[in-house]
Amino acid sequence: MVDETPDPPGAAGAAARISGTHFPVTTLGPGRRLGVWFQGCPLACPGCMSRHTWDPAGGRAVGLPELLDEWRAALAAGADGLTVSGGEPLSQPVALSRLLAGAAALRRAAGAGGRPADILVYTGLTEAELAPEPGLREALRHADALISGRYVAAEPTDLVWRGSANQRLRPLTELGRQRYGPHLARTAAGPRVQVAWAPAGGVLLYGVPGRGELSALERRLRAAGVRLRGPSWRQ
Ligand code: SF4
Question: Could you say which residues form the signal peptide (predicted)?
Fold first, then answer.
């Protein structure tokens, strides 16, 4: 049954520009999660696999109530958490702040009798860049954990949920420490990319690929008759 908790103040009319959403995502944080990808990233990391999220005018504008409805549905389906990635979520600090505040309020209501769902945010900014920016830190107030730093192709890593060794996973709350503490130095044992069929046709890839994983995946898909015509990491 979907939670009927009203939207938090400020949600009505608020909008974010997003690249997409998906549930369940299993490769960006612990358990089964709702993924929300913000649209727009000015950081332009060489080798980024999400170049389709760079254009701030791309994607689509979505009202916060719509995103919170997806979060309600995910919670009702047993979601372990929300992962916000991009793009660069902190390029839209007001929308991010409102989304996280609304998501935190709803998960508290939904989690009253069950295990709490956590909130994980990815940013390409470093902690040093965030430190002098109170508005950006305020936008992360409801995040339980943060993965920060640019993707650096020359610094591959096997650490779970991180694309390069410089990226830092930091728990921010008690829930974050419980949920992410055991994973800070854990390396990925299996596939780090999840393949899902896109509603409009084709495939979508979710996750942080390990060394050579995208090329191997492309070969397997080709063998299965799926040809990737426009993978965004080749643009
Ligand atoms: S890896 Fe992340 S921070 Fe870097 S360009 Fe891509 S979307 Fe932006």
Answer: none
pLDDT in tens, 209-220: 887 787 888 888
d(CA 98, CA 231): 32
**Residue from 18, 28, 53 whose mutation best tests the ligand 1 pocket (most atoms within 8 A of CB):** 53
Q: Examine residue 29 and state whether it is found in any structural domain, yes or no.
A: yes
Tell me which of 43, 121, 126 to substitute to probe ligand 1's pocket, judged by most ligand atoms within 8 Å of the beta carbon.
43
> Which alpha helices (DSSP H) does the chain contain, by range?
64-76, 93-110, 127-130, 134-139, 174-180, 213-223
pLDDT tops 70 at residue 206: yes
38 ligand 1 Cβ < 6 A: no
* 167-202 tens-digit pLDDT: 999 999 999 999 999 999 999 887 788 888 777 777
How far, in Å, from the CA of 117 to the mean position of ligand 1? 25
Tens digit of pLDDT for each residue in 20-42?
Answer: 999 999 999 999 999 999 999 99
Domain with 27, as residue range(s), is 15-189
Check if the beta carbon of residue 19 is closer than 8 Å to that of residue 38: yes
Q: Is residue 6 part of a domain?
A: no
Question: How many domains in the chain?
Answer: 1
